[in-house]
Specification:
Layout lengths: L3 H11 L2 H15 L11 H17 L4 H25 L2 H4 L1 H5 L6 H28 L5 H4 L2 H25 L3 H14 L15 H7 L2 H10 L9 H25 L3 H4 L1
Helix pairs in contact: 2-7, 3-4, 4-7, 4-9, 4-10, 4-12, 7-9, 9-13, 12-13
Family: Belongs to the ABC-2 integral membrane protein family.
Keywords: Membrane, Transmembrane, Transmembrane helix, Transport
C-alpha cells in the first residue's frame, strides 16, 4: 500500500507547473515595479553581513574572513527556515480557492512555500558565493558540500511545513504562536554568536543543543570550513528527520481529508 503523502509528493514533483511557476510569479510580480527589481532579493543577507559582520567580528575577536561565512550562511539558512515556516502555517488558508475547486493534493502547497523561500535563498547565495570565494577560510571543494547539506535542510523543511500547514488549517492562532517561538528562537540560535561558546555539559550548552536550528546550521556550516559536523548533530538531524516524517505521515493519513472543511 502506497503511503498517501509519498504518492501525493511524487505527483507534485512530477508536475511542478503549479507550485514552482506560481512561486516565481509571486516574486516577479512583487518586485516588478521597483527600480532595482530582483536585485532586492540580494539585499537582506548582504546588508546584514556588511553591517553586523565587522562589528561582531571585532566584538568576538574573530577573523573577519571566517566570521563573515559563519554569520552570512547562518543568517541565510535561518531566513530560509523562517520563511518556509511562516508561509506554511497559513498555506492552506491562503490557497483556499484552489483547494475548494478540487486541487486537494496538499503537497503542492507545501512545495509552493518551500519553492518561494528557496528562490530568495538562491539569490542570497549569489552574494554568499562571492564572500566564500574571497575568504581563505573556505576552499572551492568545500562549497560543493552545500549540494548535500542544503537538501538535508529542505527534506526536513518539507515535513515541518506540511505538518504546520495541517495544524494551521485547524488552529488559526498557530501563526501567532509560531512568530513568538521564532522570535525567541533567534536569540538561542548561533547565528551571530558561536555554539561552542557554551560547553555541552553546561546549562547554556544543553539549551542551545536542544534547538533543532543549531544542528541544522552545524550540518551546513562545518563542512564549509573543512570540518565534519559533530556526531551529535548528525545523530540529532537523522533522528529528527525520521520522527518528523513519521509525524507528517500520521497527520496526512488522519487529518488531511478534513482540510477543505477546516478552511
Amino acid at each position: 500500500m502506497t503511503i498517501k503523502i509519498f504518492s501525493q509528493l511524487n505527483l507534485s514533483l512530477r508536475r511542478p507547473e503549479f507550485w514552482a511557476y506560481s512561486s516565481w510569479l509571486d516574486i516577479v510580480t512583487r518586485y516588478r515595479r521597483t527600480r532595482l527589481g530582483l536585485v532586492w532579493l540580494l539585499a537582506p543577507v548582504a546588508v546584514f553581513m556588511l553591517i553586523t559582520g565587522p562589528l561582531y567580528a571585532r566584538m568576538f575577536n574573530r577573523d573577519l574572513a571566517s566570521y563573515m561565512i559563519h554569520l552570512g550562511m547562518g543568517y541565510a539558512v535561518w531566513r530560509l527556515m523562517v520563511m518556509v515556516l511562516n508561509d506554511s502555517v497559513s498555506a492552506f488558508r491562503s490557497n483556499k480557492s484552489f483547494i475548494q475547486d478540487g486541487n486537494t493534493r496538499l503537497t503542492d502547497y507545501t512545495l509552493k512555500s518551500i519553492a518561494k523561500s528557496l528562490f530568495y535563498f538562491a539569490f542570497s547565495m549569489i552574494g554568499m558565493l562571492a564572500v566564500m570565494i574571497w575568504s581563505p577560510a573556505v576552499s572551492a571543494p568545500a562549497i560543493l558540500t552545500l549540494f548535500i547539506s542544503i537538501p538535508i535542510v529542505l527534506i526536513n523543511l518539507f515535513w515541518v511545513g506540511y505538518s504546520l500547514s495541517i495544524l494551521g488549517a485547524r488552529l488559526p492562532d498557530l501563526g501567532e504562536v509560531l512568530n513568538t517561538i521564532l522570535m525567541v528562537g533567534f536569540l538561542f540560535t548561533p547565528i551571530i554568536w558561536e555554539g561552542n561558546r557554551y560547553p555541552a555539559d553546561s546549562l547554556g550548552g544543553v539549551v542551545v543543543r536542544l534547538n533543532p536550528a543549531f544542528h541544522m546550521l552545524e550540518i551546513v556550516r562545518e563542512p564549509l570550513f573543512g570540518r565534519m559536523p559533530p556526531q551529535s548533530s548528525i545523530a540529532y538531524v537523522a533522528l529528527l528527520t525520521l520522527s518528523g516524517w513519521l509525524l507528517a505521515i500520521f497527520l496526512c493519513r488522519r487529518y488531511s481529508r478534513y482540510v477543505p472543511i477546516w478552511i
